Amino acid sequence: MLVPIKWLKEYIDFDLDVDEISEKLIDCGFEVEQIIDQSKQYENILTSKIIEITDHPNASNLKVCKVAVNDGEIKQVITNSKTLNVGDFVFLALDGATLFTGLSIKNTEIRGILSQGMFCGLSELNLTKDDFDYPVDEKEVLKIIDRNIKPGLKCADFLELNDIILDVSITSNRPDANSILGIARELSSLLSKPLKKRDLLQLEKSPNLNYKLEISNKEDSKCLAYYSAIIEDVKILPTPKIIKNKLKSVGIRSINNFVDLTNYILVSIGQPMHAFDYDKIDGQQIIIRNAKEKEKIIALDGKEYTLMKDNLVIANQNEPMAIAGVIGGEKSSVTKNTKTIVLESAAFSKETVRKTSKTLGIRTDSSAQFEKGVNPTTQLQAIEIFLFLVEKYKWGNVKRNYDGFSTNVQKNLQIVFSPKDIAKVLGIYIEQNIIENILKNLNFEILLDDNGIFKVIAPQYRTDIFSVNDIAEEIIRIYGYDKLESDESTRFNLTVGSINEKEKCLNNIRNLAIYNGMHETMTYSFIGENDFNKINLPKTDKLRNGIRLSNPLGVDMSIMRTTLIPSMLNVMEKNFNRSNKSAKFFEISKTYEWENEKELTVKENLMLCLGAYGGVDFYSFKSIIEAIFDKMAINIRFKASQYPFLHPYISADLFIQDADKEIKVGVLGQINNKLTKNYNLLPNSFIAEINLDLVLNNYYGYKGYSTISKYQPVERDFAIVCEKNIPAQAIIDIIEEATQPYTKSINIFDVYQGKQIEENKKSIALRVILQSDTKSLSENDINEITKKVVKNLYEKIQATLR
Amino acid sequence: MNEKIKSLVQISLERINNCNSINDLELIKIELLSKNGSFANLMKDLKAIPNDQKPYYGKIINEAKSEVLNVFSQKFSFLNEQALKEKEKSEALDVTLSKKREIGAFNPINIVKKDISDIFIGMGFSLADGPEIELKKYNFDLLNIPDDHPARDLTDTFYITDDLLLRTQTSGVQIRVMEKEKPPIKIICPGKVYRPDDDATHSPMFHQIEGLYVDENVTLKDLKKTLEEFAKLFFDKDTIVRFRPSFFPFTEPSVEVDLSCRMCHGKGCSLCKYTGWLELLGAGVVNPIVLEKAGLDSKKYSGFAFGIGVERAAMIKYGIPDMRLMFDNDIRFIKQFKF
């Protein structure tokens, strides 16, 4: 909210400078986001008097003007204006000025003659015709006609647009502070200074005898207060500068005296107001009711809106005249032909205004204020100030009466507490008299008994005080958070912090990944339908059944991802496109799936995704995964598999062994060739995705120490020939089975196909290390085992020794 | 005889001295000292010497032989030494060349997330976890966020159904933990949260670290002390903590917490936009209504809670100007963050 200092001073006197005021506001909970110096916008623009006009020697359409600024200083300005005369006063923008059109002024030569500035028109100064009480040509240089004019006055001062404006952010629990009065009230408590009394017209509730008007409220819960007053013989005029400039300082454009006055009241005390033309109120009836289904209204913005049944409207006998709290209707609006005005000052519930404004897509200053919350006690005061000003400026004939009602407004709750209760929240003890003073300055009603028990009631405008904690906050924000100093009594209960096994494992995995050269990515959890298409997923694949957002930022971010692979491929592609020749990435993030869509239960799976391209092959990529599982002491196995996004013959499922069963926990492989059409990627790119929840749920931790055998290990090498399509793992399994319980390791060190080997066959060389924990293996033992190995290899896969 | 011996020693020493290869030296050694070598021949010559002089000359020959042997062994070690030096020289490597083994790097968000978590774990907090796809109940209702609060709008929250949404804050975990456990509760919960914003300082997905401490007699002062200790460890020991009043429906009193700028220590610089302060987190005393809603007796227990923006902390820690860089995943960016 913008708070001009001059406007603020209408409500409270203070002699603190802007920085001090803003610091005070920050300290008590109102963040000052910006301090705007209005006169900065008019820097280096002065009033000046033209004392000589001559033709430009080198350009027939230009004039060279000599102008007086201050102290007889003469500037030379080149202009193309034809309307200027010697003796005219104009605004002169000098070197260093920046105009509202964005133009920066510098000393410059135009056709060989120096020009030291530029004469300003309306748009360059952010002014309009209406800002002047004499005719002004919008396209021409602006002439100043004023009794008190002299050269050398600062433009900002002359226009009285020289205020300092605080941009204050107001938290949603303090709608009462959403006005100049609200901020003044806070300052009054902070500075212990009273608010200034505002001039207003005392009214009494009675009908206006000349004008019949009946008000009826059909929606008690939506309209909490509704007041109206009538102004006769109104004169629609331009607004006086003093009000116009104030509105300008908070960014509101002047329209006419009545519109401006409603805006002025809105900003001043936070009460939105509206005006109807009395003669257009059919049946002289104001009915506050819900709209009828499909009822239509043309609003002040010129658009026709189709209303819904729960939109609150202000209607006459026949039709809606305004959408309550949001916007007025065109038909009933005040025009220059209006003779009699009906002023509306109401309190609509924030829920109804919010809903209506949202469903119709209309947002106005009025609706914004109602959404924040308008207290149902300020309506009459708003009318009283309004009428006072109408009478003061003689804009119409004001009678001292009003009509209207407010629903029964409850007083705030009484809260009972002792200073000890406050200390229990804050951790420091604040003396009774300090508490009393602070609450008194905040306009609380206070009852204090002899035992030091407070019974307090917050002022009517405060809608955020319900409990002792609320009171504690009021006290400490005024008393000062800097006084919350910790001392010996600050107590840290002894608790032991810990991370769980799962987190430890994740840290391990992350460390191993980076030691293997992987870089950790951070990608969004949402993907789009097209990502599924790009990874070649069939239409029926269950990965496509992702959880969908109802209000995504875009279609490509509309599905909670069921796999991290598309995100990883996008990262790889992006890096490849940026000439990063090789890269290895990993990410640990969740995927999401419905557990039961009807019951709204969701399963979130923690996944590890790896991706690499450039200088990497399948086996080196796989070795990273093997290293990670080795570090966690988890046995894994790979089996050839096929996925639409992976190369059909360079892809594998990853299993972990749990007791006797194998659990599939992931996949890895080279990307499918078709993917290189959808992504700009090298064909030799590799990806893997592993479900860490499955891994960790079957992880029982490191099993601990086991004895190192003191007996000699024995090495035996085998060279076998078998069918080409027999996987290495099958051979290892056979040998492992045959060599139990002495198997220490089985390691394939050569695979050969080609000359000397039959077609469709391959030769495999492997080294087996055997060792017993209980004895030295005899030559006989070894021979027995070797025989068994050879026999089993032949029986199971028809492998022969080479 | 004397002459003979002398001359043999002299010739031997000369030959040894002039020899520059181990192979040659071996040959010389054989020639002089083997069974049929020159010294052996000298011994044979003793046969012609009168018997009474034999011991004398025998001794002299042996002394001469051992002198030569000594010089041999010195020369051998010298030549061996030299040969080793030559070999080593020939093996010389340009040690400024490298065969680099690439080490990866962590994402800055995760580094800072872990740094912050570790500090609080050191203060006795334990890690807790909660779902990212959350029920409205936990994200809003039980946190005392009114039905008409703008944070619930479609423009501020991603919805899946009317009752299911992407959590907009980690605070929901507070409730989930309080429903299950009895005080003392002292947890931190780092995690992803989502809001429909996308610009230089907002990302539709970002990270928060939620902290919650509930026990008997936990106060606002304890919160300040906790955050002061955190600030000292996260920035440095001179860091000052400032509380500013604020409003969150689930805490009362609520505060915005500023830390004195780690670059300028309050003097004002571009990092803190010349304010001297860095806004890093929101916090407060847990609203008794929230305790009650989660099933705890608010007369007996009180607590504090805080929420730290991880990206913001990472931007401050590393001087990263645009939040989107952290989600861009350019390897040249990630590589920079080793710790």
Essential attributes:
heterodimer; A: 802 residues; alpha+beta; OB fold (Dihydrolipoamide Acetyltransferase, E2P); Phenylalanyl-tRNA Synthetase, Chain B, domain 3; Phenylalanyl-tRNA Synthetase, Chain B, domain 1; seven-stranded mixed sheet; six-stranded mixed sheet; 26% helix; elongated; B: 339 residues; 11 helices; rod-shaped
Describe the structure concisely:
The complex is a heterodimer of chains A (802) and B (339). Chain A is α+β, with helices and mostly antiparallel strands. Chain A has five domains: 40-158, Beta Barrel (OB fold (Dihydrolipoamide Acetyltransferase, E2P)), CATH 2.40.50.140; 204-406, Phenylalanyl-trna Synthetase, Chain B, domain 3 (Phenylalanyl-tRNA Synthetase, Chain B, domain 3, 3-Layer(bba) Sandwich), CATH 3.50.40; 428-483, Phenylalanyl-tRNA Synthetase, Chain B, domain 1 (2-Layer Sandwich); 501-697, Bira Bifunctional Protein, Domain 2 (BirA Bifunctional Protein, domain 2), CATH 3.30.930.10; 714-801, Ferrodoxin-fold anticodon-binding domain (Alpha-Beta Plaits), CATH 3.30.70.380.
Structure description:
- The complex is a heterodimer of chains A (802) and B (339).
- By secondary structure, chain A is an alpha+beta fold.
- Chain A folds into five domains: 40-158, OB fold (Dihydrolipoamide Acetyltransferase, E2P) (Beta Barrel), CATH 2.40.50.140; 204-406, Phenylalanyl-tRNA Synthetase, Chain B, domain 3; 428-483, Phenylalanyl-tRNA Synthetase, Chain B, domain 1; 501-697, 2-Layer Sandwich (BirA Bifunctional Protein, domain 2), CATH 3.30.930; 714-801, Ferrodoxin-fold anticodon-binding domain (Alpha-Beta Plaits, 2-Layer Sandwich), CATH 3.30.70.
- In chain A, the strands form ten sheets. A seven-stranded mixed sheet of chain A has the order 27-31-32-36-35-34-33, sandwiched between helices. In chain A, strands 11, 13, 14, 21, 22 and 23 form a six-stranded mixed sheet that branches.
- In chain A, helix 10 (419-426) crosses helix 12 (468-479) and helix 19 packs antiparallel against helix 20 (779-797).
- Chain A starts with a strand and ends with a strand.
- The longest helix of chain B has 37 residues, at 54-90.
- Chain B folds into two domains: 2-90; 108-334, Bira Bifunctional Protein, Domain 2 (BirA Bifunctional Protein, domain 2).
- In chain B, 41% of the residues are buried.
- Chain B has 339 residues and is α+β, with helices and mostly antiparallel strands.
- At the A-B interface, helix 7, helix 10, helix 12, helix 13 and strand 27 of A face helix 5, strand 1, strand 4, helix 8 and strand 6 of B.
